[in-house]
Amino acid sequence: MVQPHPRFLETLRVTVGLSEEEIQDLLGMWVTLSVKKKEHFFRAGDTCKATAYVNNGCIRRYIINDQGKESIVNFATEDWWIGDLESFLFQKPTIYYAQALEDTELLLLPFREFHIAQERFPKYKEFHVDKVQKSYFATLKRMSLSKTGSPEEKYLQLCKEQPSLFQRIPQHYIASYLGIEPESLSRLRRRLAGKP
Amino acid sequence: MVQPHPRFLETLRVTVGLSEEEIQDLLGMWVTLSVKKKEHFFRAGDTCKATAYVNNGCIRRYIINDQGKESIVNFATEDWWIGDLESFLFQKPTIYYAQALEDTELLLLPFREFHIAQERFPKYKEFHVDKVQKSYFATLKRMSLSKTGSPEEKYLQLCKEQPSLFQRIPQHYIASYLGIEPESLSRLRRRLAGKP
DNA sequence: CGTCTATTTGAATGTACTCAAAAGCGGTGG
DNA sequence: CCACCGCTTTTGAGTACATTCAAATAGACG
Q1: Distance of A19 CA from C10 C1′ (whole Å)
Q2: Cα-flanking dihedrals φ and ψ of residue A166, to 5°?
Q3: I want to staple A42 with a disulfide (CB 3.0 to 4.6 A). Which of A46, A130, B52, B173 is the partner?
Q4: pTM for the model
Q5: CA–CA min distance A96, chain B (Å)
Q6: Spatial CA neighbour of A116 closest among A125, A107, A108
Q7: Least Cα separation, residue A22 to chain B (angstroms)
């Protein structure tokens, strides 16, 4: 495996609470996957065969609706997790697409190894259950607030949460995430810049 | 306790998988709460002291944003669960409001009893973890799809999922749920009815 | 430099919004 | 039984903002 991101090891040590030996043991179960810019990690219809940690790079997760329109659900950069948990846990087809926007390095824990790890390290299982719950609560909050917010507010929110994105990816992806057209985002930015 | 909804008992029997004795034991831990139309079950800032099952009636859960605008998150009718799990599990203040739109009867499992039940009946614990996960996945899917959908699609979706609502509550609540103004919903309905 | 892609700008259109007022509906009390 | 009241829904007119389509400009990269 490639050199894991420092925060990956820190998570295992501090948040999960594993000993150095346990970490070495666990690390042995992970494999590295490189995904080149523009390539897909998975597509709708695939079944997710592993949980994935973004070691570096950037992945966009999106969905395509009945009318063929795509909408970005989230961006995963360094130290994020990417995948479709439902597809992974139940080994059923996903409805999402995951595409690299930069050359990306993923750390994968395959399905079998995931279950072995959960058995062997109860702390890892707890960590995982906890992560699901936290994601749930965060998602609920984001959803509730985003419903009342204007595109402008959502834009400013994203600027706060993931400022690095604007330096690395074309902004029509940002527009797709915000649920507006690239032209609208362009005009929105001009308005915010205060040039009438 | 009042007569529980038949589907409540069925859930305990079939989904949770408890024996008749266990059910009797568990039922003893629940208490009934009546909430009159227009009254609040909880408000932002409160800490949820119980998990709540809607035995009959209807509750709207909503949020008020920075600009003081309210937005309905969901409607809970018979055989739904209502509350803020995050607030309940971590005993911290909620950001939501829950108000009865009809005289409503709730079945409550208070915080202490909830934990006793989880210890005494491992199956109940499993049931609960499962419920959280399923809610999470359902929420994600709803969110992803709602982002691309027009108000019209969301309206038709609600018609399919909770048709009874339209017979019981004022439609400006539906509008708030859809994220549009009452006037817009009125016009939307006229368009759908096909009267130019 | 030339090509491809991304961003910006313009003009016309559409849809939801605000504000205002009218019409519909349900319940209460005379 | 009817008149009145409060609340809900509908309708109208004008406004704001995102969309579409089209074209011009700017950037990135071989």
Answers
A1: 63
A2: -65, -20
A3: A46
A4: 0.91
A5: 9
A6: A125
A7: 27
